[in-house]
Amino acid sequence: MAEVEETLKRIQAHKGVIGTIVVNAEGIPIRTTLDSSTTVQYAGLLHQLTMKARSTVRDIDPQNDLTFLRIRSKKHEIMVAPDKEYLLIVIQNPSE
Amino acid sequence: QKKNISLRLTMEIVYVYTKKRSEFGRQCNFSDKPAELHVDILPDPSLTDNFIDRDPCDVAIQCTQEMSEHEVNTERFDCEPCGINHVEGGWPKDVNSQEMEQTIRYRKKVEKDENYVNTLMQLGSHMEHCIRQNNTIDIYQEYFEEEEIVEEMEGQPSAKTVNVFRDPNEVKRTATSLSWHPDGSCKLAVAYSSMEFQKVTKDMSYDSYIWDLENTNKPEMTLKPVSPLVCLEYNPKDSHILIGGSYNGQIAYWDTRKGSQPVEMSAVEHSHRDPVYKVIWLQSKTGTDSFSASTDGQVLWWDIRKMSEPTERLVLDPSKKGNLDNALGAFSLEFETTMPTKFMVGTEQGVVVSCNRKAKTPAEKIVCTYSGHYGPIYALQRNPFFPKNFLTVADWTARIWSEDIRDSSIMWTKYHMAYLSDGCWSPARPSVFFTVKMDGTLDIWDFLFKQNDPTLSLKVCDEALYSLRVQDNGRFLGCGSQLGTATLLEISSGLCTLQKNEKALATAMFERETKREKILEACHREMRLKERSRSEQSKEDEAKDGEAEESAEELVACAEREFYEVVEAEMKKRGKDDKKEKEKYEGKDGCKEKES
């Protein structure tokens, strides 16, 4: 438990990181550093996108699997680390 | 015996008319007749000599299915983009998502799960790697930004229609004025009104619209004036404020943050008495000053903070007496922020009036006039690179003037088949300007390239084009048509990037033409002086002779004498030249004879 806390705190402390969200398989946000409405929005949308991305990768090659998803937009970068049961989402403003 | 014939239609309408049996006429009597042979043509073998057997025979056969082409256009589907509100879901059945306690308890339970801890440690380390990567190096960095890519001229200048914005109302009105949003090309404000006298119907809408360039289905914002707007301008200092001049002579201003109704309107008694054809924002500290012109002969200055009456008034009376009955109706205004004390007005009578705002007396306000057009001046603009030269668009020509020459323009286009309705300079290139005509064509002129014809002429639409506005980057332009269609065009980069030496060449051209006109003016003046002195001289002579009544005949006789004198002199000169030529040839012949 304590290591999880430490890890998440460390991630949040990195330069440019705007927010961190942990989502479970049903799309419920477990831990978040953003406000609840934004969290719900990110959780719902990115969960679906990750599922789609994963299914795309596996359709092309069934032995392959999605390891990481990065979405770079004009304002910031959304990084999603997927797992079978949980999703770690970090929003960062990259070094410009 | 009468026979009644009645017609009964499905709707139980019965019409009865009678006719006597005896009037029906006799019935036909058929009879049998044996067959008669009328014609019998027997085969004649001798006729085959007139024909030759054709071998081989060519026959085209088509074995495909016959198909027809049919076009179908579905009815316009109105879409509106809108956001979706997300609601939390996915909670298991026993947890009520609204209850904070339950959700917190659920979350704590998940966090204690061992799987959760392991997974998160692993994901966390992976994530940190990526975060550090982002912070170390920017993988999307532009390496060669500073290098300027030298663009070659891609051949033909061209323009293409990017978007078309149609008047959403049933009854279409003319798009009389367009104004671009000051911060870049994202919005276009279009003023709609019906310029045809007394053709306004009850259901004609008064609204004008602000369009977002991406969305052609629905205007972004509606402006609802009391009377249709003839002209509309964004405030270059504050992009939320727009000022509009309306058909009934009032001026109104809007704040887009405050909704569709005007924030304030000018008082009817102190406004114009005719439609306001042009309104321009002035350069001032407060950014609230503007001035307007109308065909009632007045130019009024307004401060939008106090619209109850104009701050200043000028009557366009060329006799400088401020007499409204004498005044020229104003159709267009020109104002350049680099010369804030001067402005120009284009009138209905085809005269451009140059005025000085800082003059002390109203008489001094009107500095000078430039005449040369035959019809109302629809557009008037100084060249953004050479403010001493300005463009006027009126009747069937567009003319370029120099401030110093009053009697004539220095350059002009040919007389077109259709009336020109609007025009403007390109803000990117000093030698390029645009005009639109009543036959729906847009002409792009580049007079350093070609002066007789436009460099590019495009048919934008079938109906007349009434207004034109170029965006500040010189690349996009909007044209408004009679049926309220605003077309957005993009022109090729060759027409909106400054060419090498262009400024120098344009300067040289303007100077050359100005000089030519100056010389012509001087010549005319001299001729006039000569005429005057000659007529004065002849009058003096007559006074000496004392025969005033015959002065006309004398003049005619004098003119005849002079004419014949000139002709004789010419003939003598030619005769001398001919003689010289003959002598030359004879001399040659003489030489030849000597040789042979």
TrEMBL record, chain A:
Main location: cytoplasm
TM segment ranges: none
GO molecular function: dynein intermediate chain binding
InterPro entries: DYNLRB1/2, Roadblock/LAMTOR2_dom
Residues in Roadblock/LAMTOR2 domain copies: 4-92
GO biological process, one term: microtubule-based movement
Superkingdom, natural source: Eukaryota
Subcellular location: Cytoplasm, Cytoskeleton
Keyword Cytoplasm: yes
One GO term describing the cellular component: microtubule
Keywords: Cytoplasm, Cytoskeleton, Dynein, Microtubule, Motor protein, Transport
Cited Pfam families: Robl_LC7
Similarity section: Belongs to the GAMAD family.
Protein's job: Acts as one of several non-catalytic accessory components of the cytoplasmic dynein 1 complex that are thought to be involved in linking dynein to cargos and to adapter proteins that regulate dynein function. Cytoplasmic dynein 1 acts as a motor for the intracellular retrograde motility of vesicles and organelles along microtubules.
Protein name as it appears in the record: Dynein light chain roadblock
Source organism (scientific name): Electrophorus electricus (Electric eel)
Lineage, highest ranks first: Eukaryota, Metazoa, Chordata, Craniata, Vertebrata
Automatic annotation (TrEMBL), chain B:
Biased composition annotated in UniProt, kind: Basic and acidic residues: 530-546
Keyword Kinase appears in the UniProt entry: no
Gene Ontology MF, one: dynein heavy chain binding
Annotated InterPro entries: Dynein_IC, WD40/YVTN_repeat-like_dom_sf, WD40_repeat_dom_sf, WD40_rpt
Chain positions covered by the region annotation Disordered: 530-556, 570-596
GO CC annotation terms, alphabetical: microtubule; outer dynein arm
Compartments (UniProt record): Cytoplasm, Cytoskeleton, Cilium axoneme
UniProt keyword terms in alphabetical order: Cell projection, Cilium, Cytoplasm, Cytoskeleton, Dynein, Microtubule, Motor protein, Repeat, WD repeat
Major site of localization recorded for this protein: cytoplasm
GO annotation (BP), single: outer dynein arm assembly
Family note: Belongs to the dynein intermediate chain family.
Protein name: Dynein, axonemal, intermediate chain 2b
Biological source species: Electrophorus electricus
Gene behind this protein: dnai2b
